[in-house]
Structures are given as structure tokens and as C-alpha cells.
Write a structure and sequence with these properties.
Radius of gyration: 20 Å
Order of helices and strands: EHEHHEHEHEEHEHEHEHE
Number of helices: 9
Low-confidence stretches: 111-119
Helix content: 25-40%
Strand content: 15-25%
Structural class: alpha/beta
Largest sheet: 10 strands, mixed
Shape: elongated
Mean pLDDT: 83
Length: 287
């Protein structure tokens, strides 16, 4: 079954940039694109309409927004199969429901001008936190296209075991013909000193070696045909990955399985979704 790529639109420029990326992603996967507009979106996001719609806000209908989005999707991919649907429901509920039958969901940042465009809207954050499929949050400028990656580089943040995020990142790098930079951040607690009775080398060296071992374990199942580059980097993972995002076409992070308090995003993923310099794919972990 060829599950579609789903993108949510609200008529804002960030959401239409998400449509551009969604069309690229659907084409890369050879699947249809499904564009969804929830009537009540702007009650949550408050987004100004994109100039492309060409109508005053008071007279815009859901069909106007969908037509503009469909036109954007076919601009670079005229043969792409596209379906459009407007739904009179809360947007996060619509997109979370769509995610159950999608290969990926694409969302944009919210936007009311240059400053607000740097922030992540409540709908995008809710979907990235709870969707059952990978969610792409489209950050960075509109020149960062999936099919024309300017850096030829996918980045994945790595823990100490194989994860769904690592597998997904391998697939994305191979799909794009890009290199995959797998990054394991590490830190040496300041309380550790070289004369600690259990340490036979410098603390920094031991932590770096442990990080390298964990990185190898996490990449044990990586396909041989992926151009894989391994990096162990000292520093907070959030800072390390934000730096890496500046020269990446896609940043992949994992999301923990639901616990007793339900779905949750870790602090690292939350920071990246708000500040990454490139699109971020949040991949739910699987049993």
C-alpha cells in the first residue's frame, strides 16, 4: 500500500512552504500527496494569509486555500497525484487522525511576519508530539528543498541503541542520495577528575570512547550502501545538533514511546523544533 504524504495548510506562507516540501517528499517516495485544511486552524495559529492567495482575509474560503495549495504542489511536480480536503474540525485532531494512514505528515511553523515565523505553532508542536508516523516540521528558508538538497547531508542524533530514528535517517539519506552524519554528543561531568579511583585514563577520553562505542552499537544495522559518517562531539546534544543543522538538508530526531504521562517530546527535540536551521523530522520510536 502506498500511504500518502499529508500536509496541513492554513493559507499562511509558512504552510505553503510546507506544501512545497510535502510535494518533494511525496515525489521522492512515489506516493500521492494529500492536502488538508482544517477550518478552525487560524484560531490556533493566527496566521496571516499568504500573498499568493490574492484575496482579502474576510472573503477567503476553505476552497480558496486548498486551490492555492494545490497550485503550489504542482508547480514543481505537475504529474503528482494530489487530493484536497477541507474539514470543519480542530486542526491537530484532523492531522493526528490523518497520520494513522500516512507515510509522513508535513507541517510548517506559524507565521505573522519574520519574527513569529521563527516560532513553532501549537498545532505543529501537538502533531510532532503525538503523531503515529514521522512528522516533518519545515524550518529554514524556502530554498531548502528535499529534491534539491543544497548540502547533500542528512543529520541524525544518535542514542546508544538502534532506533526507529536511525533507520528512518538511513532511508532518507539513501532516498536523497545524500551522506548521513550520525552524531553522538557526549559530556564529561565536572565532578570527575583524573585521580578518581575507578578511572585509569583521563575522564574526557573515557567518555569519548564510550560515546564512540554507543554510536557503533546504534549503527549496527545501518545499510552498507548508505554513505555514513560517524561523529562523537563533546557538548550538550541540543547545541551540537543545532550547530549541525546549519549545514544540513534534514535533521532527524527520535521521540520516546508514550509513558505513564502519555506522549512526550524530550528537551532536545523540543529545542530543535523551535530553533533548527533546517527541516526537522520527528520519528516516533517503535516497540
Amino acid at each position: 500500500m502506498h500511504l500518502p504524504v499529508v500536509v496541513g495548510v492554513d493559507g499562511s506562507e509558512p504552510s505553503l512552504r510546507a506544501v512545497d516540501r510535502a510535494a518533494d517528499e511525496a515525489t521522492l517516495r512515489a506516493v500521492p500527496l494529500r492536502i488538508v485544511h482544517a477550518y478552525r486552524w487560524d484560531r490556533y495559529e493566527g496566521a496571516a494569509l499568504a500573498r499568493e492567495i490574492g484575496l482579502p482575509s474576510a472573503s477567503v474560503t476553505p476552497d480558496d486555500i486548498l486551490v492555492a495549495a494545490g497550485r503550489r504542489a504542482r508547480r514543481h511536480h505537475p504529474d503528482l497525484a494530489v487530493t484536497l480536503e477541507a474539514v470543519a474540525e480542530e486542526p491537530e485532531y484532523v492531522l493526528l487522525r490523518e497520520a494513522r494512514h500516512a507515510s509522513a505528515v508535513i507541517v510548517g511553523t506559524r507565521g505573522r511576519g519574520e519574527v513569529a515565523d521563527l516560532l513553532l505553532g501549537s498545532v505543529s508542536l501537538s502533531v510532532a508530539t503525538a503523531a503515529t508516523c514521522p512528522v516533518f516540521v519545515i524550518r529554514g528558508d524556502d530554498g531548502n528543498r528535499a529534491a534539491e538538497g543544497r548540502h547533500g547531508r542528512v543529520v541524525v542524533g544518535v542514542s546508544d541503541a538502534p532506533t526507529a530514528a536511525v533507520r528512518f535517517a538511513c532511508e532518507e539519506a539513501r532516498r536523497r542520495g545524500a551522506a548521513l552524519d550520525a552524531i553522538r554528543a557526549w559530556r564529561c561531568p565536572t565532578r570527575e577528575t583524573a585521580d578518581h579511583p575507578l578511572l585509569t585514563g583521563t575522564p574526557e577520553r573515557l567518555h569519548e570512547e564510550r560515546a564512540a562505542e554507543e554510536l557503533e552499537a546504534a549503527l549496527a544495522d545501518a545499510p552498507a550502501d548508505v554513505r555514513l559518517r560517524r561523529h562523537t562531539v563533546e557538548g550538550p546534544a541540543r547545541r551540537v545538533l543545532l550547530t549541525a543543522s546549519q549545514e544540513a538538508d534534514l535533521l532527524v530526531v527520535g521521540r520516546h514511546r508514550p509513558g505513564q504521562y502519555g506522549h512526550r517530546l524530550g528537551r532536545i527535540a523540543h529545542t530543535l523544533l523551535h530553533h533548527s536551521a533546517c527541516p526537522v523530522a520527528v520519528v516516533p520510536d517503535t516497540p
